[in-house]
Design brief:
Layout: H1 4-7, H2 14-30, H3 63-73, H4 77-82, E1 85-87, H5 89-93, H6 103-111, E2 116-119, H7 127-145, E3 150-153, H8 177-183, H9 186-203, E4 207-208, H10 232-248, E5 252-258, E6 273-274, H11 279-284, H12 288-295, E7 300-303, E8 306-307, H13 309-312, H14 322-332, E9 338-343, H15 347-350, H16 355-365, E10 369-371, H17 376-389, H18 394-412
Parallel strand pairs: 1-2, 1-10, 2-3, 3-4, 4-5, 5-7, 6-8, 7-9, 9-10
Family: Belongs to the glycosyl hydrolase 3 family.
Catalytic activity: Hydrolysis of terminal non-reducing N-acetyl-D-hexosamine residues in N-acetyl-beta-D-hexosaminides
Region (Disordered): 31-62
């Protein structure tokens, strides 16, 4: 067992230096002198009489778009649908608690090439074990379909830690975000995110489901410690700072839980949660931290299971609501990144529909990735069957897979 402090000495500003050095190397590798013109091969445009033989100027081709389109074209419908799921490792391999990745993991990923895996405390023993497990999983996934895999964790600090809560990793817990918010100092929010991102990146993770963008404006709610504060004026700049911190540390992050569950009564892990606010009311407060995250190019937005009947006209959770996902998040806020649900193992989700129905409804609503369905095989088959029946179109699947591929190929390589 090794101490992460020993393996990778950490300062809160080190993430910037590390990211800067990596960027310099990347830019140096990609740079090169432009090819020179060969004289005598024909007249240049300036040599020709005006208007004679001039071809219209071609639109520049985006290499990433070409790469994404090529990858998408090679995928079967079943392979595309697998990319829309982020699951616990046990959902792929079938073991009771996974703490290693070997040949069984390789075979399981070949059968179920999911878009991502989310790890919890039971999966993470110490630095060496975690680095080896994640490295092997990353290599297997790339070998199987040529694509990076999202290796995810919930590491907010304070009450939500999978790494800092385990002394075997030897890292500091950044504490509850409410305490950082109370300082009013966005540099502290940035430093906490950069620090967390740096040690997660070292371990091999590439996605952290943080920061929490909820506004804890209900004293009876459950988000008081995790939220930066009780008003948008406090929370929004803190969230923006954390997105910058995670990004500078080289890890993808996710603003959560859209459209903002901090004012809800109850816990979505166990039961349905509601808000009676109108769309105009959440525009004034709850949506502002998400707008701040979007302005910082946050790669993921996680949609919670909050029911908002005054907005949607029914009791469906936000995670399967086209009014909230497509009309508000996509169209009104202009978000173009990956929309992922909160866990579909939660009571607030499972009380609405069965496993397959939830996955289909979420994608139909505009969601790109489904997090931890209660039954992965049933959820996958439900989406495939929905395309076969015409309930979903393959074009709709392609839309979400394209977003996933753009992030994977553009930001993970």
């Amino acid at each position: 067992m090794s101490d992460l402090r020993t393996e990778a000495p950490i300062t809160r500003r080190q993430a910037l230096a590390t990211a800067g050095a990596a960027l310099t190397l990347a830019l140096g590798a990609c740079s090169g002198a432009p090819a020179s013109e060969t004289p005598g091969e024909g007249p240049t445009v300036s040599d020709r009489p005006s208007g004679e033989g001039e071809a219209p100027e071609a639109e520049p081709v985006d290499p990433l778009t070409q790469q994404v389109e090529a990858a998408l074209a090679k995928m079967s419908l079943e392979e595309k649908v697998w990319q829309l799921f982020v699951v616990r490792p046990e959902a792929v391999t079938g073991v009771s608690v996974q703490t290693a990745a070997g040949e069984a993991t390789r075979k399981a990923l070949a059968e179920r090439p999911v878009g991502g895996i989310c790890y919890f405390g039971a999966n993470l023993t110490d630095t060496d074990q975690t680095r080896k497990m994640l490295s092997n999983t990353r290599d297997y996934a790339k070998e199987i379909n040529g694509l990076p895999i999202f290796l995810c964790v919930d590491e907010e600090g304070g009450t939500v830690t999978r790494i800092a809560g385990n002394s075997a990793f030897g890292v500091d817990d950044m504490g509850d975000m409410c305490d950082i918010g109370a300082t009013g100092d966005t540099d502290k929010a940035y430093d906490a995110a950069a620090y967390i991102g740096q040690y997660l990146t070292y371990l091999g993770f590439n996605v952290d489901f943080a920061p929490d963008a909820d506004i804890a404006n209900n004293p009876d709610g459950t988000m008081g410690q995790r939220s930066f504060g009780a008003t948008a004026d406090v929370v929004a700049p803190m969230v923006a700072a954390q997105v910058r911190g995670f990004t500078d540390a080289g890890i993808l992050c996710s603003a959560k839980h859209f459209p903002g569950i901090g004012g809800a009564v109850g816990d979505s892990h166990d039961q349905s949660i509601y808000s009676d606010k109108t769309l105009d009311e959440i525009r004034e407060e709850e949506l502002r931290p998400f707008e701040a995250a979007i302005e910082e190019d946050v790669p993921f937005v996680m949609v919670g299971h909050l029911s908002m009947p005054e907005v949607t006209g029914d009791d469906d959770p936000a995670s399967i609501s086209s009014e909230l996902v497509t009309d508000v998040l996509r169209k009104e806020l202009g978000y173009e990144g990956i929309v992922i649900t909160d866990s579909f193992e939660m009571g607030a989700a499972t009380s609405a529909l069965d496993t397959a129905g939830l996955a289909v409804a979420a994608i139909d609503a505009g969601v790109d990735m489904v997090l931890m369905p209660a039954d992965l095989v049933a959820a996958h088959q439900g989406v495939v069957d929905a395309v076969g029946s015409g309930e979903l179109t393959e074009a709709r699947i392609d839309e979400s897979v394209t977003r996933v591929l753009r992030v994977k190929l553009g930001r993970l390589g």
